[in-house]
Amino acid sequence: MKRVxxxxxxxxxxxxxxxxxxxxxxxxxxxxxPFTDQADVYVVNTCSVSQxxxxxxxxxxxxxxxKSPNAFIIVTGCYAQLRPEEVASIAGVxxxxxxxxxxxxxxxxNGFKKNHTPQVLVSxxxxxxxxxxxxxxxxxxxxxxxLKVQDGCDYSCSYCTIPLARGSSRSQDIETSVSQASxxxxxxxxxxxxxxxxxxxxGKLRGTNLLMLLKALVRVDGIERIRISSIEPxxxxxxxxxxxxxxxxxxxxFHIPLQSGSNEVxxxxxxxxxxxxxxxxxxxxxxxxxxxxxxxxVIVGFPGETDILFDETYKFLMDLPISYLHVFTYSExxxxxxxxxxxxxxxxxxxxxxxxxxxxxxxxxxxxxxxxVGKQLDVLYETNTKNGFxxxxxxxxxxxxxxxxxxxxxRVVPTLIKTVNNDYCEGEVIV
Length: 431
Description:
It is a single chain. It contains 13 helices and 20 strands. It is of the alpha/beta class. Strands 2-1-3-4-5-6 form a six-stranded parallel β-sheet, sandwiched between helices. Strands 16-17-18-20-19 form a five-stranded mixed barrel. Strands 7-8-11-12 form a four-stranded mixed β-sheet, sandwiched between helices. The model is unreliable at 136-140 (pLDDT under 50).
């Protein structure tokens, strides 16, 4: 049996797509090994959101070549799509596949015979329609699965390479999405996570929308939870919010990218909202359901972000009732308008601002979690155990750990929250 190992950089969508590719290898008789083990084939699914991600990709590939010089090395993902020649120049790479080609590895592998010259297959992605089921890639293989319903983005944020790497916004039709959700339910999955680059943009070329999709998905028998991976603030309407919060199946968890709490920086970023829009949105959600989890993305160190403007962002976030932050340090990306903006921020200042917001995020998460101590939450427990404990998530995205028992696996179980411990809560199952 041939052996394959995977390494994924970047977003949850990348991890989900890697898992889908992994299942193709299993169907072809491969055994999946940890990336640190000796394998016959290595697949590196890349990100290109930052210069750091590009460097990490090169570092990983070179480490694999040193460890397994005879292995067949495949590089795919956004970095491969945007800079294929740069990837191909790395000694030891055999196959470079773009966004459209990543799901057709076995059509291009030539039996995984080591190449003296890398094969590069990167095409335009405007017609790429690889949607559908993508498993979690974690050990809870019968608990949670991603359902990719959308890809690409039509926005023109000045810092972002995603439209270049993944193309324009496009969606899967509702009927196919429902059919795939039913298939997952029949396989025993309890939660599906709707994923994509800009999920809130779902259906606009088909005359449908995300609300219509959700109304169809909640009728699928067997699926107990539906979670939305992320949604842009300008696409999160009051009707959509109300339907999510009123449904027994839809999770009261919103991940809404902000990027900056300064209107001046938001304008330079070419975002489609103001800080006032964002504040109104968060306040509205919390007025309907104070227990709802709200996370957000923030970029620090954007060109022209002075100390005063960063402090404006910090204070805005500190006063906002959000649950956690994903903090990104700005990185100049080729072929983006922001890369040529003046007033670049020194790297050490970017690092300081990143750390300051990460500390704030930790405090926000602890504050959000602490309000549930002594209260009951319904937790979907995973099938993997660690040190005698099993963990899972509540609908509002609180990770809860409790003493392991097989009768909890892949079940939604009422749990009394006892204590908060850093990034999770300890709970006691209510029998």
